[in-house]
From TrEMBL:
Domain of life assignment: Eukaryota
Alphabetized PANTHER family for the sequence: CELL ADHESION MOLECULE 2 ISOFORM X1 (PTHR45889:SF7), IG-LIKE DOMAIN-CONTAINING PROTEIN (PTHR45889)
Record keyword Acetylation present: no
Bilayer disposition of the protein: Single-pass type I membrane protein
Phylogenetic placement of the source organism: Eukaryota, Metazoa, Chordata, Craniata, Vertebrata
Domain Ig-like positions: 36-128, 136-226, 232-317
GO biological process, one term: homophilic cell adhesion via plasma membrane adhesion molecules
InterPro entries: CD80_C2-set, Ig-like_dom, Ig-like_dom_sf, Ig-like_fold, Ig/MHC_CS, Ig_I-set, Ig_sub, Ig_sub2
SUPFAM superfamilies, per database record: Immunoglobulin
Identification of the protein by name: Cell adhesion molecule 2b
TM annotation in the entry: 332-357
Signal peptide (UniProt feature, chain positions): 1-23
Length: 399
């Protein structure tokens, strides 16, 4: 009896051991059959990156983060690398999350999360660091330029990763530039140039360099406003179309140039203004207070700057108001045009009437021509009668 009880206890213990070993193997298989789960991270230089490693099942097996140099950053909740920028966010059997602050380009690379089973399971996560481009600068322009100069504007930005894109605008219209990219360590220096010959139309024009990059929500921009010096150009405007005696009359000398051409000098017929009491000069304007016949002549304004001298002329003819009827010029012109049209119309009617009458008479005469060629009187009568019949058939009428 005692022997039977002893055998039953041995069998019970053996079964319990078998079940215990089987359970342990099942747990081990659950840990060893999976890999850590990670995600790639992209961050702007100077920003913060969170690196997370997870497992679905863990039986108290530790997780570890290592940097691209295979230095251990955290083993579980234990910090292994002395770097004040790296800190623990969350540590448990299923998750290990760390934070890297003030990320630099040197932090970029492949990070490793390890699950310490037998054997060790690892998963990689790539940290991409975007290099922010520096503010662009435009070089190559020294104010002022002179009309006809060839100018090369160069826009430069450094520190971008990947390389930034540069666009040029002339006021609001895009223009093409020549691009050059150079690597500086892990970042890039980008240059773009535009070359052109300036003229007076470029004075005051804004050339804008725009830097675009994936790290920027809005492009960086810088602008250079051109200053172009050019020789003056003058023209004269007048206040009256038909100046008459006794009227107030003004001439203005419009000058275009850079620097502004001044002073403006007025003259008449190659000499000084003859009557300074009635002829008043104020800046660019010449005013004649009361016109008379003696004011007839050629008026000239002249101005200059560092690049040259220009002039413009106006021929003044003062009309006698008594010699001009009220609205005379307009009525005379209209009357002359009407007279010409009426005369031409009458001539056409007369010529057309004579032409039609002449052709109708000739046609009927030739119908009776056979009577004139007959050898005797009897034949002539017969031919005339026959032709007359045919003439009635062939006669045409003009309406």
């Amino acid at each position: 009896m005692i022997v039977q009880q002893h055998l039953i206890f041995i069998l019970y213990s053996l079964c319990a051991s078998v079940f215990k070993v089987a359970g342990t193997k099942s747990k081990a298989k659950g840990s060893q059959g999976q890999f850590p789960i990670t995600q790639n991270v992209t961050v702007v230089e100077g920003g913060t990156a969170n690196m997370t490693c997870r497992v679905d099942y863990n039986d108290n097996t530790s997780l570890q983060w290592s940097n691209p140099a295979q230095q251990t950053l955290f083993f579980g909740d234990k910090k292994a690398l002395r770097d004040h920028r790296i800190e623990l966010v969350r540590a448990s059997w299923q998750e290990l999350t760390i934070r890297i602050s003030d990320v630099s380009l040197s932090d970029e690379g492949q990070y490793t999360c390890s699950l310490f089973t037998m054997p060790v399971k690892t998963t990689k996560a790539f940290l991409t660091v975007l290099g922010v481009p520096g503010r662009p600068e435009i070089t190559g322009f020294t104010k002022p330029a002179t009309e006809g100069d060839v100018i090369t504007l160069t826009c430069t930005t450094s520190g971008s990763k990947p390389a930034a894109n540069i666009r040029w605008f002339r006021n609001d219209k895009e223009v093409q530039g020549t691009k050059e990219v150079n690597a500086t360590g892990k970042s890039f220096t980008v240059r773009s140039s535009v070359q052109f010959q300036v003229d007076k139309r470029d004075d005051g024009v804004a050339y804008t360099c725009s830097v675009e990059h994936v790290s920027l929500s809005n492009p960086y921009m810088t602008t250079e406003v051109l200053e172009v010096h050019y020789a003056p150009h003058l023209e004269i405007t007048h206040s009256l179309i038909i100046p008459q005696e006794g009227q107030y009359f003004k001439l203005e000398c419009i000058s275009i140039g850079n620097p502004i051409p001044e002073p403006v000098l007025w003259s008449k017929d190659g000499g000084e203004l003859p009557d300074t009491e009635r002829m008043i000069v104020e800046g660019r304007e010449l005013t004649i207070t009361t016109l008379n016949k003696t004011d007839n002549g050629t008026y000239r304004c002249e101005a200059s700057n560092d690049l040259g001298t220009s002039s413009a002329e106006y021929i003044l003819f003062v009309y006698d108001p008594n010699a001009l009827g009220q609205h005379g010029p307009d009525h005379a012109l209209i009357g002359g045009v009407v007279a010409v049209v009426v005369f031409i119309t009458l001539c056409l009617i007369i010529v057309l009437g004579r032409y039609l009458a002449r052709h109708k008479g000739t046609y009927l005469t030739h119908e009776a021509k056979g009577a004139e060629d007959a050898p005797d009187a009897d034949t002539a009568i017969i031919n005339a009668e026959g032709n007359h019949v045919h003439a009635e058939e062939k006669k045409e009428y003009f309406i």
